[in-house]
Amino acid sequence: MSFYLLRAKYAQDSMNALVQRPEDRMLTTTRLLKEVGGRLHYYFFCFGEYDIVLLFELPDNVSAAALAMTLSAAGTVSATETIPLLTMEEAIDAMNQAREASGIYVPPGRGPEGRSGRGRAKGRNAARERAS
User: Fold this and answer.
1) Which residues contact 30 (CB under 8 A, 6 or more apart)?
2) In whole numbers, what is the pLDDT of the chain averaged over residues?
3) 41/64 same-domain check
4) C-alpha dihedral over 8, 11, 14, 18, to 10 degrees?
């Protein structure tokens, strides 16, 4: 299972409904996440650009996309942002892979292609021709 953080902005109609009839949306969200194979850890209301922040687990990115689509399609939210999270173990695996890849990757302008100067000379010649 993978961890995700979802930020969402309630649609005006949804927020109006909650103000008129307050209810615990964590229960509905927990059921929805279980339906797509996940588990809700936290459901927070917050200030700022977004109204809620959820921390949950799902089997994969497809399930996370399905969750965001379900909320949007229902008209519950007007905006969502889903952020995949890495455990420390996953982050260390990523760091190890990055260390191995760093010997392969060459930044722009530092490889054999960048030293030839062909692209720059061509650009300078074209600028000279336009100026004359």
Assistant:
1) 40
2) 88
3) yes
4) 60
- The answer to whether residues 44 and 75 belong to one domain is yes
24 and 76 belong to one structural domain: yes
The verdict on 103 and 46 lying in the same domain is: no
Range of the domain at 123: 89-131
pLDDT tier at 124, thresholds 50, 70, 90: low
Count the domains in the chain. Answer: 2
For residue 131, pLDDT over 80 is answered with: no
pTM of the model: 0.76
Domain match, 79 and 95 both: no
pLDDT at residue number 123: 52
Residues 6+ apart with CB under 8 A from 45: 51, 52
According to DSSP, residue 110 is labeled S
Convert the pLDDT of each residue in 7-22 to its tens digit.
Answer: 999 999 999 999 999 9
Q: What are phi and psi of 55, to 5 degrees?
A: -120, 120
Select the more confidently predicted residue: 103 or 54: 54
d(CA 60, CA 44): 22
Instruction: Report the CATH number at residue 43.
Output: 3.30.70.920
